[in-house]
Amino acid sequence: MKKTLTAWRRAGGFTLLELLTAITVLTLMLLLVVNMTGSVNDVVSHQKKQMDSIGSARAALDTLNADLNSLVTLGGTTLLFKPGDATVSDELRFLTNTRSANGVARPRMMLVKYRIETHHDHALEVDHPVFVRGVTALSWPANSAASVPDYDFATTLANATIDENSVASSAMFRLEIVWLRKDGEVSRDPRGTSPSGSADAPTSQGYYWINLKEVAGFVVSVVAMDGGSMRRVAEAEEIDQLRESFGSLKLTDEGILPADEWSKAMATVAPEYARKDLRILSRTYFFPNQ
Fold first, then answer.
1. Lowest-pLDDT range, 58-62, 83-87, 96-100, 101-105?
2. By the 8 A CB rule, do 77 and 209 touch?
3. Taking CA 157 as the corner, what is the angle to CA 153 and CA 162, rounded to the nearest 5 degrees?
4. pLDDT over 90 percentage in the chain
5. Cα gap 91→208, rounded to integer Å
């Protein structure tokens, strides 16, 4: 029996309309897969950048911890603190023993500072903040008869020029410290809230001498951002505004940490486009037993 023309055509393949419909469906499915892949790649890339910024900040805080573990506690005050303001972050200076490659402290001492400075990126022609570690060898007094207990380390720390700087982290742009006093008080002022005598007044350079017999340690709070995001904000000339927004926050309670206050106020102090790129960290340090 011979097939009819209609049956022959039906058995012979797809119609043009069916082919066009199939091609359209496949195209839409491919576009969907590509978009999903692109979104996943964006998420992975963003998460990697965030991990890099957090890793950079943590590595810098680890270096600070290593220096503090070798803190020299002889000869009086060997730790100075300079409180910042809305535009300038806090600064630490202290005397520590140098360390060998395996981290073991050596007898030779050095002056160390930690603070955030503004560096110029010559490639992008923008200024952006970086976390800096500065070191210099301790200059012993000309009078070689001076003993360690008689040496005025506090004055040396305050007046020393520490210009051998290295970038500890390019991801941090705000740093604040609160002090853990042995009387249980947590305060921005290492002297506590009680009336202070003239001996507790800051030096002419604005440094406070930390009495290790009264202060058990401190908590560092930092705001970090990956390098690419930092440069974008700097190119938009909004890095100073962003830094001041965090710096202008006042602690609502003496017992609260800056990191907690910043986290609560993130929606109000940071522009919407930058919130997803910001990370807030804190680290607690305790001094050697006194």
1. 101-105
2. yes
3. 140
4. 8
5. 10
Tokens for 12, please give them: 């012979």
Contact criterion met (CB below 8 Å) for 129 and 116: yes
Distance (Å, rounded) from C-alpha 186 to C-alpha 253?
A: 10
216-238 exposure pattern, b = at least 16 Cβ within 10 A, e = fewer = bebbbbbbbbbbebbbbbbeeee
Helices (H) and strands (E) counted in the chain, each on its own, are 8, 10
Amino acid code (one letter) for 107: P
Average pLDDT, the chain: 75
Q: What angle in degrees, to the nearest 10, is found between the helix axes of 227-235 and 16-69?
A: 100
| Cα–Cα distance, 133 to 139 (Å, whole number) | 19
| 242 contacts: CB under 8 Å, gap ≥ 6 | 173, 233, 269, 270, 271, 274
CA 220, CA 281: separation in Å to the nearest integer? 8
| Backbone phi and psi for residue 204, each to the nearest 5 degrees, phi listed first | -65, -20
The yes-or-no verdict on residue 102 having pLDDT over 70 is no
Cβ proximity of 187 and 136 under 8 Å: no
**DSSP letter string over 178-240?**
EEEETTS-EESSTT-SS---GGGS--TTS-EE--TTTEEEEEEEEEEE-HHHHHHHHHTT-HH
Cα gap 95→71, rounded to integer Å: 6
3-state helix, strand, coil in the chain (%, to 5): 35, 30, 35
